[in-house]
Request: fold
Amino acid sequence: MSDPIRIALVAEGPTDRIVLEAAIRRLLGDTPFKIQQLQPEESLGFLSPGCGLGWGGVYRWCRKAVERSGGEIENDILFRTYRILIVHLDADVGEEEYSNAGIDDMENDLPCAEPCPPASDTTNRLRSTLLRWLGRATTPANTVLCTPSRNTESWVLCALYPGDAVVTSGTLECFESPETRLQAKPLRGRIISGGKKHLASYRARQDEICTAWPTVREICSEADRFSIEFLAVL
Amino acid sequence: MITKLIVESFKSLEKAEIELGVVNVFVGANGSGKSNLLEAIGVLGAAAFGRVDDESLLRRGVRPGVPSLYKSSFPRKEAEKVPHILFCAESTKASYQVSLWNPGTDPSPPWKFKTERLRRGSESIAERSPFKKTDQLLDPEQGLTALKSFQLERGDPARGLLDELRNYSIYCANTPTLRGLIPDPQVREPIGLSGGRLPQALAELLRARLREENRGLAERLDDIGPLIDWAKNFGSSYSAMVPLSPSAASSPRVVRFVDRYMAKRRNVLTGYDASEGALYILFAAVCVLHPKSSRVFAIDNVDQALNPRLAMRLATAICNWTLANPFERQILLTAHNPAVLDGLPLKDDRVRLFVVDRDSRGHTVIKRVQIDDELLSKHAQGWTLSRLWMNGLIGGVPDV
Reply:
């Protein structure tokens, strides 16, 4: 029994994991892999009501990992088990302030959003911020940054509804709320309703996202960047 | 909803008084008295029903015991000895208090009512005292309040409190019963106290989401699937329609899962073959979400057989389900997995965490853990509640 490629994922939420797993399945083809979502050690009781892990969780995980590894993230204990670390952060985090997630960070490099298009102006700045969280100026070895623009739902919209006007307009990566487009889709197969992302529905449509990944890469530059960088670290 | 509970001289609960929320989680060392507290409400429920005997206690998930074990037996001076056990439950508009006695030597199976008091606000509805001559003629094994309660109208807060107590039970699932291998000794609707009738209850729950009066149930049921991550979907089927070993004992219905990874047509498995963790998740979901569940109930060891991260997520889900439940449930849970603590949204006052310890005298002491500035400062230093608990910093750990 061969050991699968073990991939550690630090992502904002559980639906991001489903989408990224679909993408990786397409990129790896028949190669077996095991993806494990890592989460910061956190008590819900300490967080404000309704506040989940989100991008603040990604921040806290990164800071903890830097502390744990003595600033050498590529030597972190996680790499004993996992071959690759993926750190995900949506581009719309570029509009956030640290205080929104109850974080006190001296650098204050958020917000960092730039006019879109091009989407990369914001994602490049956000990647620098993310690298700082990881205590690095450049991407550490065996690590892949994933910064969907404006967020993972842009990729989902593209994969599941390629004929959507926003998708075909060529400005999908700058469209503010792909969630609202997904929410307006026919009830059958709808994955977001009442503002809530339905995990079970994301799961049910994961195969479709996997199949449509080449289309997502064509339309979303950040999906393509992620795919190239992921394949490069293999 | 029971807002306050007072217990005296019952097992290790020499004198306990706690203010309950909607979801109440009790953690503490083994033998600290968590289950005794759950059972105290069960005894009170039996009293509200009118008879406290083995049958009535078993029906509520309470372990029947001889008086010498039920009454606290801490060493004390003769003058301090209390001959009875006392229980009191309060809601915002009513209260019910009862004291029961049974001689230590030559006890009779039914406990005898010594005092009873049912109140609506400050108004007395039923009262019984051994010092009242007329009360001395009453059958001591029969509760007076239970008889009088038939005169109370629906919607009366006193009747509401009594109904909540009467229907209270302690659930403690076990794997063979959940798998349908052995019958549940306490079969109840919607689900037996050990998890019997799970397939039927699950079928009813899934059907209930289609009814207009249960709006919102479908959304809460959506939360179950992600907790069973290896399954594509789950449900309940007639056992004849699913692959099941003939040697497996089966009921007419079985829990059915579709494995995410297996090939089509060979990916269906039953509760008999499935991971036990999935069955415990479904069991908890049925207890909390089924329209016919009791208004007030307890689940002992809610985290058994669960991976820590799953236990944490289940704790969060139970809180979310309960707080959003139109049926206004009140739940008491015991747990041993530290991760459960990290899943509790404790900034919501309706969710309460209690640590249970035994003091130097052996008395059970119960302390609520509230998120205050001091705990928040620990959070700022990177501490979690689970680690605070494991380090003994909030109490509730054994000295081993």
Notes: Residues 187-293 of chain B form one domain. The CA atoms of residues 4 and 19 of chain B lie 4 Å apart. The interface with chain A takes residues 219, 222-223, 225-226, 232-233, 309, 316, 341-348, 351, 353, 371, 375-376, 379, 382, 384-387 of chain B (CB under 8 Å). The first helix of chain B runs from residue 34 to 49.
